[in-house]
Amino acid sequence: MTQTIETQSDLINGLYREGANIADTKAPDVPLRDRWEERKFRARLVNPANRRKLHIIIVGTGLAGASAAATLGEAGYNVSAFFYQDSPRRAHSIAAQGGINAAKNYKNDNDSVFRLFYDTVKGGDYRSREDNVYRLAEVSANIIDQAVAQGVPFAREYGGLLDNRSFGGVQVSRTFYARGQTGQQLLLGAYQALERQVAAGTVTTHRRHEMLELVVVDGRARGIIARDMVTGAIETHLADVVVLATGGYGNVFYLSTNAMGSNVTATWRAHRKGAFFGNPCYTQIHPTCIPVSGDYQSKLTLMSESLRNDGRIWVPKKKGDDRDPRQIPEDERDYYLERKYPAFGNLVPRDIASRAAKQVCDEGYGVGPKVDGVSRGVYLDFAEAIQRMGRAAVSAKYGNLFDMYERITGDNPYEVPMRIYPAVHYTMGGLWVDYDLQSSIPGLFVAGEANFSDHGANRLGASALMQGLSDGYFVLPNTINDYLADGPFEKVPADHPAVVEAVTSVRERIKYFLTNNGSRSVDSFHKELGHIMWEYCGMERSEEGLKKAIELIRALREEFWRDVKVLGTNEELNQALERAGRVADFLELGELMCIDALHRRESCGGHFRAESQTEDGEALRHDDEFAYVAAWEWAGGDQAPVLHKETLVYENIEMKQRSYK
Q1: Of 135, 350, 557, 609, which one is the catalytic site residue?
Q2: In the Enzyme Commission scheme, what number(s) does this protein have (predicted)?
Q3: Which site among 226, 349, 509, 628 is 20 to 30 Å from 238 CA-CA?
Q4: Structurally, how many domains does the chain consist of?
Q5: Residue ranges in the chain modelled with pLDDT below 70
């Protein structure tokens, strides 16, 4: 009853208002194992001759976008692919290190499609759709076959079979990998498939272009407004359907493991045009990152979760123990994950490992230099693995990661334990989509990390690459045809009022940034926003802190529009101008994230509310009140966002409090 009253209080205070409930109506009402095949059969087809008359815009060429563009181009559609990098090979997917999951059961350790499905739903703390997750597990094996056929150099065992390793949140070995550069190798496979279609003439690429607005005509997505980042030209591109595959929004925190250019603008502009935003507060904190070293930093570096297979995580049992870790005896070390979670040990899911690290550091057991009076680091130690396997074997599995760590920190992890600490990594929230990956705007499809669909409140390691390639190679090409079967659609003229309005809004926004002549740089605002988000909407949230964050963000956003200064002109390469638009969107997104986190008065996965925890500090869900997807609708600049709830129904998995002990 208390929570109901508090929720009503938030509504009264005007932070948000509730709208009608929503549901995904695309998943067939058949047994779970038959739904994907049934949906593919029921979906209408487009004959090859008609495909040549249809035009698809795809924004983003990471794993989801590149694989979708390649597959749809090969199917005979006309595809235009847009990306802000100078090459698709530089998409942020390249940074993924550890591996990609698939239910192949090569290790004969009782893995299966259902176990991968179960692990993913449980790992997401029972806040994802059964339909989507089962499909993801079902097509996972196909991804590996596709990648091998493309020549992706997965690690192999002595006998020639593909090797597997384990990852957090599971007790089987199902993760395929290419040393510590799996994302790069998979992206090269998708890239060569994409370039094959470029050569064939079915795909046209637009490099160094950033989408700044979505064109919606008569309620349907029909194109984008993009800026040529080299010349500054504002271009209109129209099509029959638009696909967003633009990644996540972790850079709202300023410091994250994301590439510096990663942003939310494409999906946020779509949100402002009517696309619901699902579960924005669900962000993932990765437990194995190199700790912050100073205020000068602009990003953080990820150490692959695969290191937790053989590395052991510990802190000294004595507070403030600053001895060389090699001089601390075994009986004076606390292997706290192994102590607290004996069944999973160092392989607990990311959210649990991250909170555990924060807890021991907050209690004074952290190691390394102090930041704000606290040592924020724990040891990731490979001494036992080197003794057991030999240095050569460890190097074969993790050598490039060890080299990267040494270049950044100056410490040799073969000799001295790594120091790690949690950092913002992935975002489970994103645009709401149905089973077909279509958003609430007809004709707007969303793939990969840009949608919310598969990971609930926490993503298991090695599932990001799986989702991106699943969406791009296998799901989207089998669902977008159902929408395109109504085409070709009537051509939209460039002088259509909706197009003119979109172009005008982009030009006016750019003009404002360049003529405002304030006194503060864009980066200073971004850094301040990031501090607010990390402090109040980061690893732990509370009602008091979230309400304070909303006030601070609103004040900061008002100051941003009043006092931001952007040098240079539009008709040139102008990174300050690019960042200004992105930070403006982050400021709006940040407020929605805090509102979403405030309204969800439970702890689940990566969303940890201080008021909702068990006696031993674990996340405590409230399934009777919050077993739903929070899909937020933009209501206008001065209006409170509208919350639409999609009830989560579990027919094949029992919802229960997670335990990895």
Answers
A1: 350
A2: 1.3.5.1
A3: 509
A4: 2
A5: 1-12
